[in-house]
Specification:
Number of strands: 5
Number of domains: 2
Bound molecules: guanosine-5'-triphosphate
Protein name: diguanylate cyclase
Cofactor: Mg(2+)
Pfam family, one: GGDEF
Strand content: 5-15%
Catalytic activity: 2 GTP = 3',3'-c-di-GMP + 2 diphosphate
GO molecular function, one term: diguanylate cyclase activity
Length: about 400
């Protein structure tokens, strides 16, 4: 489920701070640096040089500290851990820079030719415009600058309207400019904030989508496992743990196809317990079950060739599918199984052939042609088994 989320205030502030420092750092510092150089150039002929240089050095140190602070905050990502602290330091830095420019203007108005005063005003307006463009992601950062740079100049000009003919105009125009800039900064700031919030929401949603995709992938894997387990269960005989008739049909078809392609031999051994009905009747059905389980273990021990499959074909009938197996090899497997069963000496109280459990086996080997079907192969093995039964049981007959 995807929810419409709204960016938490702290995260919004962190994102704004990062944007401001990434994009505003170089531009703000460069604009102020150019301003300092311009002031030194303009004031040079009219001021006491050591004081001017001292002022320039102080402002440069402040700019350098501001730049270092921003670089540091970006590297250590302190705007994430303590955004409020970074916010206030940036706002204070901005206010201090504004004060530098308003005081420089007042100084020029009081001590320097009027042309220099106007050039200063132009310079400060330019720096303010640059500041607006690059630092407005934090509105207060820009407003702190505006109210310490242009705002004091406006009021100073109005108060000293008699000193210069244009002071009144400058004061009034600057008040209007300040009001306009406040409106514009508010408008740009809102756009930025929406952009950041939208971006955050998009990232949050894509993160959630990623989580959803992962959990869907997990569920899919679980379903596939469950399906595989179900298929396995459907192919397994519950009593003996061997493959069942369903598996025999599937494997036999596959092995016939493979042997047909490879032109190789395929052997089948059909096994039946002798006088098993009598055994059940004498010792009970559950004793019969135990015998079937013991025999299935022996069959697995008797098979050793790669790809051989032992399965319970039904009732007390078992089957061994032996790929790439010659008649001689199949006969060896059947003989080994017969010996193992006899060696086990499982008492049979009512067998006409032995005092112990015995089995009869029908063996058939084919090199499948284009026509051979699994059923035909089973029938041939069944006929051989029938022969073995007819020959007195506890025997192996080859079909
Ligand atoms: N205990 C037990 N008996 C089973 C199971 N499945 C089939 N049988 C029994 O196996 C016996 C098979 O008997 P028949 O097919 O008459 O053959 P037989 O008595 O073994 O005689 P021959 O095969 O001719 O030697 C039946 O009594 C079935 O009830 C099983 O899962 N457990």
């Amino acid at each position: 489920m995807i929810y419409q989320r709204h960016i938490p205030r702290e995260e919004l502030l962190s994102a704004q701070l990062e944007l401001l420092m990434q994009h505003g750092r170089v531009a703000t510092i460069s604009a102020n640096l150019v301003g300092v150089i311009a002031v030194i150039g303009l004031f040079w002929p009219f001021s006491y040089l050591p004081y001017l240089l001292l002022w320039g050095a102080a402002v440069l140190i402040m700019l350098l500290l501001r730049s270092l602070f921003m670089s540091n905050a970006l590297v250590e990502r302190s705007f994430n851990s303590s955004p409020k602290a970074v916010y206030w330091q940036l706002v204070i830095g901005s206010a201090l820079t504004g004060l530098v420019w308003s005081s420089a203007y007042v100084y020029s108005a009081l001590n320097l030719p009027v042309t220099i005063q106007y050039v200063m005003l132009l310079l400060i307006v330019l720096i303010t415009a640059i500041s607006l463009a690059v630092t407005v992601t934090i509105r207060e950062h820009f407003l702190a600058y505006l109210f310490t740079a242009l705002w004091p100049i406006a009021w100073w000009s109005l108060v000293h309207y008699r000193d210069e003919p244009y002071n009144l105009t400058i004061g009034l125009v600057l008040l209007v400019v300040c009001a306009l800039l406040m409106m514009v900064s508010n408008w740009i700031y809102r756009s930025f904030r929406n952009m950041i919030a939208l971006n955050w929401e998009r990232e949050a949603m894509s993160r959630e989508l990623g989580d959803l995709t992962n959990s869907l992938r997990d569920r899919n894997r679980q379903l596939q496992d469950a399906r595989r387990q179900l298929t396995d269960l459907a192919n397994i005989d519950e009593l003996t743990g061997l493959g069942n008739r369903r598996l025999v049909n599937k494997v036999l078809q596959e092995e016939i196809n493979r042997a047909r392609r490879a032109g190789s031999e395929l052997s089948l051994i059909l096994i039946d317990v002798d006088y098993f009905k009598n055994y059940n009747d004498s010792l009970g059905h559950s004793a019969g079950d135990t015998v079937l389980q013991e025999l299935s273990d022996l069959m697995q021990r008797a098979t050793s060739r790669a790809g051989e499959v032992v399965a319970r074909y039904g009732g007390e009938e078992f089957i061994i599918i032996s790929p790439n197996s010659s008649p001689a090899a199949a006969m060896r497997t059947a003989s080994r199984l017969q010996s193992l069963v006899l060696d086990e000496r499982i008492p049979h109280p009512n067998s006409e052939v032995s005092d112990y459990i015995t089995i009869s086996q029908g063996v058939v080997t084919v090199t499948p042609d284009g026509e051979l079907q699994p059923g035909e192969l089973i029938n041939r093995a069944d006929e051989a088994l029938y022969e073995a039964k007819g020959a007195g049981r506890n025997t192996i007959s080859v079909g």
